[in-house]
Amino acid sequence: MSGKLKKPKFTGMKIYCNTCKRDNPTCKHHDSHVYRVRLHVKGSTKGVKVKTLLSRDYDEAVDEAIAFKKEMVSVNYQPEYKPKERTSTVQTIQTLVSGILKYDQYLNGKHELVHLRKEVGDAHRKETIRFCTYFCDAVKKIDNVTLLPISEISQHHVAAFYSWAEKEYAPRTFNKMMAAMKGFFDFIVAVEKIKMENPFAVYVTKEVGKQNIQTLSKTEFEAVLEAVDNASPIFNMKTGEKKTMFYPYLKNAFKLFLLTGGRREEVVDLKWSDLMITVQDVRFFQVANGKVEKQKRSKNLHGATANKFFPVNADLMELLTELGYEEFKGQDKFIIAPERTVSSKTIMDRVSKAFTHYRKEAGITKEVSLDELRKTYLTWMNTIMNKDTKILSSHSNQEVLNNHYIDPTVLSAVEKANLEFRIFAS
């Protein structure tokens, strides 16, 4: 494309420079020059219709201009309506892999359709995506997941995953995985509008037996505390690295877990200012119910903060006195590691891993973790509170406690009749 364009004589036809952005240019950008035609819209004062002509040949350009003018006259200078093309940088789901990536964004509250955004806890999100990845691995054994359209995921793929999962996982986890996959494809169908049926809509769940609940005895708990003082704090990692499990707040943290029955984040973030005293001199900790608040956030629910309560019994009061109750009561200071320089999550992980380490160092062979301190607390509380235990533990019903937290072997009927509200009845 080179050379000057012939000066037009057709009415409304001009030479236009794409570089200078002007009609009838005097520049030397000859390669950027094109013919344009400008038509006045009849009946208007300043209305015009403009078209850039394709040809650089003058005669051909004139033919284009005449055709354009005839077209405008025939439609009364109103061009045919063409719906505006939507441009989007959002990745379209085509394969299983792209679907999983989009679902991860969705669970992280980053979906482009803001009214459909869902946000869950980070641990739940990671677990769900891990299950989706397991399903992807199962599909790989049958089809090429980089080419297979997600809409062609079939019952055969589900069957392959089902067979693998029932061999690898216990019924409780198996059911959790299948429910997670059903939720994933609900998202694909209902939110992303992929035209397909949910392949996990119907499946047979596994029967889950009653959990073998384990708690700690007084002797076992004291052995763990003694191990903190006397056993080796060094843990040999699989990588060959050596890591210390000792932190100065461990023993008090273990005791506070046992004597409140709180969840990890509730105990680690417990402050002196959370301690309430009634006019009857009844003491209790009042904290936000983290579990309920997470559920409310995931469902976009609002309203007053849900609270839960830790009664301060004789055991707990003794511990608080040791930790400086008279000095710190009412202060906005953490009870555990008040001068902390790391996050609460880091402290939670340290306490949890350290408990398992020192439990093993104490020679306790049964598989109990930090969670069993909560179960121990709720077991002993249940002997006093019975069906009212769920009021303080924030569980929805007694069945949940019976199935997962209450150890039925702890107390005999005689011990129960004479029990005062102390952990281990000491």
Kindly describe this structure:
23% of the residues are buried. It is elongated, with a radius of gyration of 36 Å. It folds into three domains: 13-74, no CATH class; 96-191, no CATH class; 218-425, hpI Integrase, Chain A (Orthogonal Bundle). The chain is α+β, with helices and mostly antiparallel strands. Helix 4 packs antiparallel against helix 5. The N and C termini lie far apart (99 Å). The chain has helices spanning 58-74, 96-107, 122-140, 155-168, 171-191, 218-230, 250-260, 264-268, 290-298, 314-322, 325-328, 344-361, 371-385, 389-393, 398-404, 413-417; strands at residues 13-17, 22-23, 33-40, 48-52, 234-236, 242-244, 275-277, 283-288, 307-311. It contains 16 helices and nine strands. The strands form three sheets. A four-stranded antiparallel beta sheet has the order 2-1-3-4, with helices on one face. Strands 7-8-9 form a three-stranded antiparallel beta sheet. Belongs to the 'phage' integrase family. Residues 211-418 form the Tyr recombinase domain. Keywords: DNA recombination, DNA-binding. GO terms for molecular function: DNA binding. This is Tyrosine-type recombinase/integrase.
